[in-house]
């Protein structure tokens, strides 16, 4: 009788794993048993040789800029855009909870790369209106939210310094996580003024623990942008220099994984020209030049980079960079695979990915936690301060002289004239600078609220008066005019492609009031300013002027010529936004005839573009 060749499967008892063993029905029992033992022995041997592994996930956000809720305080409505993005830490909290559920909370770390406490009316309110620095003052909403979500460490951003060091230190006290800044050092001792790093140990059953070090780096531009607060107190060495100092120390302390949280973009460029020797957007340089880094959470640039692979020049190893979109619109995940080799954990692979906040709903725990603070700010920004006779908008302000920007320059002129009254410079003509910060700002006809005016001036800049010559102002205007793309006479004009030449942002294009001039966009950059006049006569290069500028520009932001080195005649700590609200409140009626003037226009070979 022929043997039955039907196959059967047996399960190995080794580690509970399923092992398929082929046998033959009707074969001698001893042979089958020997076969099974042999398979078990092979399985045990393979298990013994298989290296121990550990999976770790590092989550990251950056440039939150005070966004807790998916709410646009300037429009008094939920935030929305054409791409379907949503914002806010309440959404990030839901994403973080999901990741912790998927990966196991004990196998995750949550970081941020800076710019936390400035950027919305919510953060302004708790810095200036109901300040956290007051005796018995409130806990900052960002501290409350980030504590509740369970951040492990946060790098300092440049905007952390906008309200002064006292406010930053109070915020630091309120956080249950460290604010990291290896290259924010005491100006006298050159020792770190904030914790340089954070280290966390992850327990692995039956194996050595995994040690993860996070190095925090911030932006050298703070020395320029917030000079008034930091000069003589803090200095900010370069990111590459400080990473090269600290990474070897972290490795010598037993770090198996080194992550850098850097408030610095990846482009290798700077917006402050040659005023500092250190690169502003240096994250990729750090990856390329400093050995021993596994991943970098990138911030500052407000761009979305899911995964950027940079090869270290000395080791040949790949460093993984990722920058989640700002305002809590994205969450970066670095997924690490580690392998135990000769008693030490080694990073075998790193993969970066992004999760989108628009895929989840708000975490009710966060919205409930900060409902009262949110309601106070909504009430504050909806206060009526005046009445507008007509609608004013920034829609065309990039390429035509818009009255809404003239409002800014008029307020600045008036404030500076009043400040200089009775001084030796009181008789000098005052010019003023302003930028079209927003492309969507609108002050509607009728009641004007604080939120309407705040949407016009979204930054917490303050006012400075600088002494400039006519020749310096001319050079300033030429530099500003580089913002426009050269467009030949007769060529079609697409306003969407007319500006931002060389990637220059809108906030680095300036109007200058008090003069009359043309910008000839048919001509090459550097020779575009035509028919520049003051008081109806050609500008005298030797004439002296007072230029009213914001502190960002006065300190060198945007690398405009002459202004940073010009003599400072006066400055103040009150925000320009507040000065605008005071001006409108005092007037009661916002009428363009009180502030609007046509100072400049775009031309091509003398013919107006518009």
From TrEMBL:
Taxonomic superkingdom: Bacteria
Signal sequence coordinates: 1-27
Domain 5'-Nucleotidase C-terminal span(s) in chain numbering: 384-563
CDD domains linked to this entry: MPP_CpdB_N
GO biological process terms, semicolon-separated: nucleotide catabolic process
Domain Calcineurin-like phosphoesterase intervals: 57-303
InterPro entries found in the cross-reference section: 5'-Nucleotdase_C (IPR008334), 5'-Nucleotdase_C_sf (IPR036907), 5'-Nucleotdase_CS (IPR006146), 5_nucleotidase/apyrase (IPR006179), Calcineurin-like_PHP (IPR004843), CpdB_N (IPR041827), Metallo-depent_PP-like (IPR029052), TAT_signal (IPR006311)
Signal as UniProt keyword: yes
Transmembrane annotation, as ranges: none
Chief localization: other
Catalytic activity: a ribonucleoside 3'-phosphate + H2O = a ribonucleoside + phosphate; a nucleoside 2',3'-cyclic phosphate + H2O = a nucleoside 3'-phosphate + H(+)
Intracellular or extracellular location(s): Cell envelope
GO cellular component terms, A-Z: outer membrane-bounded periplasmic space
Keywords linked to the UniProt accession: Hydrolase, Metal-binding, Multifunctional enzyme, Nucleotide-binding, Signal
Cofactors named for this entry: a divalent metal cation
A molecular-function term among this protein's GO annotations: 2',3'-cyclic-nucleotide 2'-phosphodiesterase activity
Keyword Nucleotidyltransferase included in the entry's annotation: no
PROSITE patterns: 5_NUCLEOTIDASE_2, TAT
PANTHER family according to UniProt: 2',3'-CYCLIC-NUCLEOTIDE 2'-PHOSPHODIESTERASE_3'-NUCLEOTIDASE, 5'-NUCLEOTIDASE-RELATED
Family: Belongs to the 5'-nucleotidase family.
Record's protein name: 5'-nucleotidase C-terminal domain-containing protein
């Amino acid at each position: 009788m022929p043997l039955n060749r039907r196959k059967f499967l047996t399960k190995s008892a080794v580690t509970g794993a399923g092992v398929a063993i082929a046998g033959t029905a009707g074969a001698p029992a001893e042979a089958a048993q020997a076969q099974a033992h042999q398979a078990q022995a092979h399985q045990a041997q393979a298990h013994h040789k298989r290296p121990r592994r550990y999976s770790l996930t590092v989550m990251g956000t950056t440039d939150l800029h005070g966004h807790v809720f998916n709410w646009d305080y300037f429009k008094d409505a939920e935030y929305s855009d054409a791409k379907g993005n949503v914002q806010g830490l309440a959404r990030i909290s839901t994403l973080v909870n999901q990741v912790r559920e998927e990966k196991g909370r004990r196998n995750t770390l949550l970081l941020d790369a800076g710019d936390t406490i400035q950027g919305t009316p919510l953060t302004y309110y708790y810095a200036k209106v109901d300040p956290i620095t007051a005796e018995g003052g409130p806990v900052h909403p960002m501290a409350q939210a980030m504590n509740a979500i369970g951040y492990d460490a946060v790098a300092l951003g440049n905007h952390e310094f906008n309200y002064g060091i006292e406010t930053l230190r109070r915020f630091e006290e309120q956080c249950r996580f460290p604010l990291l800044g290896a290259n924010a050092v005491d100006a006298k001792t050159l020792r770190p003024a904030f914790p340089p790093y954070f280290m966390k140990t992850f327990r692995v059953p039956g194996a050595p623990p995994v040690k993860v070090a996070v190095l925090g780096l911030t932006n050298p531009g703070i020395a320029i942008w917030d000079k008034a607060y930091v000069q003589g107190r803090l200095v900010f060495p370069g990111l590459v220099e400080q990473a090269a100092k600290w990474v070897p120390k972290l490795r010598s302390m037993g770090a198996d994984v080194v992550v850098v949280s850097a408030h610095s973009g990846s482009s290798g460029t700077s917006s402050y020209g040659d005023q500092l020797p250190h690169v502003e957007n240096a994250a990729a340089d750090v990856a390329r030049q400093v050995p021993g880094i596994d991943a970098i959470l990138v911030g500052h640039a407000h761009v979305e980079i899911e995964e950027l692979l940079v090869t270290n020049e000395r080791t040949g190893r790949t460093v993984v960079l990722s920058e989640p979109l700002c305002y809590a619109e994205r969450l970066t995940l670095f997924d690490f695979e580690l392998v135990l080799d000769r008693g030490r954990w080694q990073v075998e692979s790193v993969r970066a990915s992004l999760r989108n906040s628009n895929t989840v709903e708000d975490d009710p725990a966060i919205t409930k936690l900060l409902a009262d603070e949110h309601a106070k700010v909504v009430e504050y920004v909806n206060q009526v301060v005046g009445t507008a006779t007509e609608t004013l908008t920034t829609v065309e302000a990039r390429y035509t002289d818009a009255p809404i920007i003239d409002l800014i320059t008029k307020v600045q002129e008036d404030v500076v004239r009043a400040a200089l009254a009775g001084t030796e410079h009181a008789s000098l003509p005052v010019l003023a600078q302003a930028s079209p910060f927003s492309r969507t700002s609108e002050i509607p006809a009728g009641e004007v609220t604080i939120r309407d005016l705040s949407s016009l001036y979204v930054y917490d800049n303050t006012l400075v008066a600088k002494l400039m010559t006519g020749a310096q102002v001319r050079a300033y205007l030429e530099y500003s005019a580089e913002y426009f793309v050269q467009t030949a006479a007769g060529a079609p004009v697409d306003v969407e492609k007319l500006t931002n030449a060389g990637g220059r942002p809108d906030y680095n294009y300036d109007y200058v009031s008090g003069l009359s001039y043309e910008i000839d966009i048919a001509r090459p950059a550097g020779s575009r300013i035509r028919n520049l006049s003051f008081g109806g006569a050609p500008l005298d290069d030797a004439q002296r002027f007072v230029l009213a500028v914001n502190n960002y520009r006065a300190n060198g932001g945007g690398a405009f010529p002459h202004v940073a080195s010009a003599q400072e005649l006066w400055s103040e700590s009150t925000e320009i936004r507040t000065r605008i609200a005071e001006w409108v409140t005092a007037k009661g009626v916002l009428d363009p005839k009180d502030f609007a003037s046509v100072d400049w226009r775009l031309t091509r070979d003398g013919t107006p573009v518009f």
